[in-house]
């Protein structure tokens, strides 16, 4: 019988519990089903579909709105008893099995979304097998690297400040350490690399390829998740390299809007709230902000996990009546996080945190750690241990 071990390096999870991943997908499906159904899209393509925001989007739209979905992600399957692959691999499988049980199409593409070939394979599938054009395209990629499909050059993103170094507290979840980190300002090359990887270029390439192939339905919507944050994280996030990449997505949204005008399509930037994901856990200082914010928001009853936030975005806002937009036309479900009391209390709380008290109940370290663990299938609610072998895992098909 396989033993699943939670193996953390810094704030990166290396271990995985495939059965826990499956249970978490089922928990998220239950969350959506308990909310009932809503009228939404029917044919959805999600780029970055295997974890956190992308996976939550897929679950909400399939089980809330009855959508057929195509999910593109970059994950690894099991090799041997010491290398079981990645959580997203198992999330994809659990999602497909559950969706197919309900009679929904759930096609997984596990490949590099940045390549031209990937886009063409997805397009061929839409044309020949999906049973209709796509009415929603969700762009939810987070990556550290991207190979330019035309030049073959590989770019790396860097989460860095601009101009001045930033000094502040950070948390290491591997050894429960609270330490001072200095984030150096980005070089020109790092800025350019981050724009190339996390900016909107690939989103635009996807939309151009899909439009060119005539697989987008009239009135198609495409969403892209952004983050703006507040003065508490601006120096290293909104005001840093990632912020520049997000601003590039704002610009590309305008280009995509023009591209889609003749089919009445729309590109929508969605400024989402801070949540615990594999991508956000490695943003310097961010975990400290999160344990302050989550404590305050939990007490106010406004703390959300990705599935709660995403389901509210589509059910209540995008396909509902409660959408809030800013002056730039971005959807703003992050208003709960940005609420002035919430921010003031978070600021006061994180100023009090130190190595002695950060895991105590004055903040929400335990919640952050639990949410982080769930991403790899550990500490999952309703989890029941079962016997499973490496052959069982290898036999699973995505
Ligand atoms: P995540 O790390 O949980 O998921 C990233 C997804 O991208 C995974 O499905 C992964 O397989 C896929 N992916 C990565 N490289 C790929 C490649 N080359 N080809 C195909 N798939 C690939 O990330 P998370 O946090 O859900 O981020 C999604 C988006 O949401 C990002 O744009 C992020 O900036 C944004 N966002 C995140 C917030 C947070 O607090 N986590 C807050 C607001 C926005």
Automatic annotation (TrEMBL):
Enoyl reductase FAD binding domain segment(s): 326-382
Keywords, alphabetical: Fatty acid biosynthesis, Fatty acid metabolism, Lipid biosynthesis, Lipid metabolism, NAD, Oxidoreductase
Trans-2-enoyl-CoA reductase catalytic domain segment(s): 84-319
Top-rank taxon: Bacteria
Biological-process GO terms, alphabetical: fatty acid biosynthetic process
Pathway(s) per entry: Lipid metabolism
Domain Trans-2-enoyl-CoA reductase-like NAD(P)H binding, residue spans: 5-79
EC number: 1.3.1.44
Catalytic activity entry: a 2,3-saturated acyl-CoA + NAD(+) = a (2E)-enoyl-CoA + NADH + H(+)
GO terms of molecular function: enoyl-[acyl-carrier-protein] reductase (NADH) activity; NAD binding; trans-2-enoyl-CoA reductase (NADH) activity
Matching Pfam families: Eno-Rase_FAD_bd, Eno-Rase_NADH_b, Enoyl_reductase
Record has Oxidoreductase as a keyword: yes
Residues making up the signal peptide according to the UniProt record: none
Known partners and oligomeric status: Monomer.
PANTHER family (alphabetical): ENOYL-[ACYL-CARRIER-PROTEIN] REDUCTASE [NADH]
Protein name: trans-2-enoyl-CoA reductase (NAD(+))
Native source species: Trichococcus pasteurii
């Amino acid at each position: 019988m396989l033993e699943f071990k939670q193996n953390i390096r810094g704030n990166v999870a290396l271990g995985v519990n495939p059965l826990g991943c499956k249970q978490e997908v089922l928990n998220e499906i239950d969350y959506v089903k308990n909310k009932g159904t809503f009228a939404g899209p029917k044919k959805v393509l999600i780029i970055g579909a295997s974890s956190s925001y992308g996976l939550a989007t897929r679950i909400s739209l399939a089980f809330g709105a009855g959508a057929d979905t195509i999910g593109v992600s970059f994950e690894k399957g099991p090799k041997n008893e010491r290398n079981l692959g990645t959580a997203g691999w198992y999330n994809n499988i659990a999602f497909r099995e559950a969706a197919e049980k309900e009679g929904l199409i759930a096609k997984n593409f596990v490949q590099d979304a940045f390549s031209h070939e990937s886009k063409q394979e997805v397009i061929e599938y839409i044309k020949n097998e999906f049973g209709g054009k796509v009415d929603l395209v969700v762009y939810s990629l987070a990556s550290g690297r991207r190979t330019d499909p035309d030049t073959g050059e590989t770019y790396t993103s860097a989460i860095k400040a601009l101009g001045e170094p930033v000094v502040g507290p950070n948390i290491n979840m591997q050894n429960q350490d609270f330490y001072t980190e200095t984030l150096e300002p980005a070089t020109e090359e790092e800025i350019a690399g981050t724009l190339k990887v996390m900016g909107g270029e690939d989103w635009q390439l996807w939309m151009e390829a899909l439009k060119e192939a005539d697989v987008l339905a009239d009135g198609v919507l495409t969403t892209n998740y952004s983050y703006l944050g507040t003065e508490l994280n601006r120096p290293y996030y909104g005001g840093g390299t990632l912020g520049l990449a997000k601003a590039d997505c704002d610009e590309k949204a305008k280009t995509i809007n023009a591209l889609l005008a003749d089919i009445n399509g729309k590109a929508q930037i969605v400024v989402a709230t801070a949540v615990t994901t594999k991508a956000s856990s490695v943003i310097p200082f961010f975990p400290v902000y999160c344990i302050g914010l989550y404590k305050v928001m939990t007490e106010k009853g406004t703390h959300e996990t990705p599935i709660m936030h995403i389901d509210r975005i589509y059910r209540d806002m995008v396909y509902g009546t409660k959408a809030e937009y800013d002056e730039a036309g971005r959807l703003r479900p992050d208003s709960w996080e940005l609420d002035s009391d919430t921010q003031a209390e978070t600021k006061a709380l994180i100023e009090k945190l130190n190595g002695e008290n950060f895991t105590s109940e004055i903040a929400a370290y335990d919640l952050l750690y639990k949410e982080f663990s769930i991403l790899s299938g550990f500490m999952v609610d309703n989890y029941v241990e079962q016997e499973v072998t490496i052959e069982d895992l290898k036999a699973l098909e995505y």
